[in-house]
Design a protein that fits this description.
Number of strands of chain B: 20
Oligomer: heterodimer
Mean pLDDT of chain A: 91
Shape of chain B: elongated
CATH topology of chain A: Pnp Oxidase, Chain A
Shape of chain A: globular
Helix content of chain A: 25-40%
Mean pLDDT of chain B: 84
Strand content of chain B: 25-35%
Largest sheet of chain B: 7 strands, antiparallel
Distance between the termini of chain A: 11 Å
CATH architecture of chain A: Roll
Structural class of chain A: alpha+beta
Number of helices of chain A: 4
Largest interface: A-B, 47 and 54 residues
Number of strands of chain A: 7
CATH architecture of the largest domain in chain B: 2-Layer Sandwich
Number of domains of chain A: 1
CATH class of the largest domain in chain B: Alpha Beta
Number of helices of chain B: 10
Helix content of chain B: 25-40%
Radius of gyration of chain B: 26 Å
Structural class of chain B: alpha+beta
Number of domains of chain B: 3
Low-confidence stretches of chain A: none
Order of helices and strands of chain B: EEEEHEEHEHHEEEHEHEEHEEEHEHHEEE
Distance between the termini of chain B: 72 Å
CATH class of chain A: Mainly Beta
Strand order of the largest sheet of chain B: 2-1-5-6-7-4-3
Largest sheet of chain A: 6 strands, antiparallel, barrel
């Protein structure tokens, strides 16, 4: 599912946004703070905002999740859909991963969109949780006529 | 709801893309970006429906959505819980969203690609400040400090007063761009007028640029200014860099799919690094006269309040243009004065200026540099010819209207505007030929160097 190109893309400083669903069917939007493609095929480790309790509750319940990764520079976008396997407290490695992600993400925004780091870094959460997601589907979400197309290599 | 939608006004300017999460009936979520969320009233927002088809399908099954908005000046983030209420395919909200899509399309010449299908209206159930290290709920205010103050009525009144005291259109135009800077803080502005056949706009006045650009042209329907003219509707963008990126990305996708040809790459005049631009049609008696455009390097620099203020200014300018036409128009009386001739010889110490005229399109060059074309070019050629042959310096609009060599259209000939365009272009170039208005329907030609006239038929 994740060839080298997709792995590099997903692990870059692209914007990470999340959709989860509450038990009553209500959707909830959130952000991710760093993604790592795991050696186990079709699994990713995603860092969540520790204070986004709704996302974290949905994730902790093994809920469905949608993750869209979008390049700040080109708007190339991939949407991953799957289910959360586990949620745990972020490790020191996770914190370092989040710091690297923020560096890349905010640099891209500054260079591309002109928003200074002193402004964009106000988004940084107070802490992180780490979740493992089993990815079932992969979609091209790049703006344009192909947006929403299921990508080859996607299992379902 | 303690925090109001109105207090989030800057979040609705489209400077930072919004995020929308929806869910299908089976509980599968979807998350994507929105270029802009529009404020409808104190408890509703509108989303444009064009590309996000999965989102639309989800909402048909499950009418709830979660949206993230970012305030571009502070990067405070807000989460809105929405419930779908209705879809509109006409009316003021639809038109407002369509203007936004038009502006987006105009950036890359993709008017055929970006088409608004509908405006979906949502009721906002809740607004939540998303906390971060820097933004804590206990420190956050009610958002009032981020509210935008629009131009004051007093400034508008002062501008109207200045325009009403102006004695001619030339002064009106200079007073307009000066007042926009001095009273409203719009440091970069353009005034463009519609040409005789309604297909192009030409710059008649500007402020805040290295080059005044008098006479530069824009095709109606192309770019933000051209689209504002074509739609006769204001167009406003607050994040040109962001919008251009999105627009380019979509264009690239379409080009790769073979659905459209290469970009026309419409050059947008003005600041190369502008973030905000507002183009307002100048209308008089129900007809388009021109376009007034202001721009800024600041993000989300213009709001609906600026749009409203500029619409008033544009209407004043349009009516001044029409007033000039009526005053000096074909029916204006000739005062019967005999043409005055120039008894003075231009100083022989001054090098002769070479005026080269191309009859085919009226293009006129001064000392090898392009000066003007069309009616204004033919007018200049007629004037300098009469000056050369007969030494004439005083002219009336009426006699020139009868000059067949100008090839004026029979109706709505725009003579006054073309004469003013020529005057301002000569002033901008510091040319040795100048025009001075001497009275109603009359003007004087000032020639300060010998002229060498050359007519080219090609």
């Amino acid at each position: 599912m994740f060839d080298d190109d997709r792995k590099t893309f997903l692990e870059s400083g692209c914007s990470l946004i999340l959709g989860t669903v509450l038990p009553d069917g209500e959707p909830h939007a959130g952000r991710g703070w760093g993604l790592t493609v795991l050696p186990d095929p079709a699994r990713v480790r995603l860092l969540l905002d520790v204070e986004d309790t709704t996302t974290n509750d949905c994730a902790a319940g093994g809920g469905a999740v949608a993750i869209t990764a979008a390049s700040v520079r080109t708007l190339r976008s991939l949407q991953l859909k799957g289910r959360v396997l586990s949620v745990e407290t972020a490790s020191l490695d996770d914190a370092a991963r989040a710091a690297r992600y923020c560096e890349a993400f905010f640099s891209d925004i500054e260079e591309t969109d002109g928003f200074g780091r002193e402004i964009t870094e106000r988004l940084v959460p107070i802490g992180y949780l780490a979740c493992t997601v089993e990815v079932d589907d992969l979609f091209d979400q790049t703006p344009g006529p192909a947006a929403g197309a299921r990508l080859t290599g996607s299992p379902s | 709801m303690t925090r109001t939608l109105e207090s989030l006004q800057l979040c609705f300017e489209g400077a930072v893309p919004a995020v929308i999460a929806t869910a299908a009936a089976d509980g599968t979520p979807n998350v994507t970006y929105l270029s802009r969320v529009h404020l409808v009233d104190h408890e509703r927002v509108a989303l444009s429906n064009q590309f996000f088809s999965k989102t639309a399908r989800n909402l048909a099954e499950n009418p709830r959505a979660s949206v993230l908005l970012i305030q571009p000046w502070t990067y405070e983030q807000f989460r809105l819980r929405l419930v779908y209420e209705r879809t509109e395919r006409r009316g003021p909200v639809f038109e407002r969203l369509r203007a936004d899509i038009d502006a987006l399309a105009a950036l890359e010449g993709m008017e055929d690609v970006f088409k608004l299908q509908s405006a979906d209206i949502y009721r906002v159930l809740d607004i939540e400040l998303v906390p971060s290290v820097a933004v804590r709920p206990e420190d956050a205010g009610d958002g009032a400090r981020t509210a935008i103050e629009g131009p004051q009525a007093a400034a508008l009144a002062e501008l109207a007063g200045r325009l009403s005291r102006a004695k001619d259109l030339d002064t009106v135009l200079s007073a307009t761009v000066d007042a926009l800077a001095e009273l409203f803080g719009y440091e970069h502005s353009l005034v463009l007028l519609l040409d005789e056949d309604g297909r192009r706009l030409y710059t008649i006045a500007s402020r805040g640029y290295d080059v005044e650009g008098v006479g530069s042209e824009i095709t109606v329907g192309e770019g933000l200014i051209g689209m504002a003219a074509a739609r006769c509707r204001p167009l406003r963008v607050g994040s040109l860099r962001q919008m251009s990126k999105y627009s380019r990305s979509v264009r690239q996708s379409y080009e790769e799919s073979g659905d459209i040809g290469p970009s026309r790459q419409i050059p947008v005049p003005g600041l190369p690094d502008a973030e905000s631009r507002l183009a307002v049609p100048a209308m008089a008696f129900g007809e388009l006269v021109g376009v007034l455009m202001v721009e800024s390097r600041g993000l989300a620099a213009f709001t609906s309040a600026d749009e409203a203020a500029l619409a008033v200014v544009a209407a004043l300018v349009a009516n001044a243009v029409e007033g000039e036409r009526t005053e000096d128009g074909p029916a204006a009386a000739d005062d019967g004065q005999a043409p005055t001739t120039d008894e003075r010889e231009p100083s022989s110490n001054v090098a002769a200026a070479h005026v080269r005229f191309f009859a085919a399109d009226g293009s006129t060059f001064l000392d090898g540099d392009y000066l003007i074309k069309g009616v204004a070019g033919r007018l200049l050629w007629s004037l300098v010819g009469q000056h050369e042959r007969e030494g004439r310096i005083d002219f009336t609009h009426r006699e020139l209207r009868l000059d067949a060599s100008l090839d004026l259209p029979p109706h709505r000939d725009n003579f006054e505007n073309r004469l003013l365009l020529l005057k301002r272009r000569l002033d901008e170039r510091a040319a040795p030929v100048r025009i001075e208005k001497t009275g109603r329907g009359r003007f004087r030609l000032h020639v300060t160097a010998p002229l060498r006239l050359e007519r080219a038929e090609g």
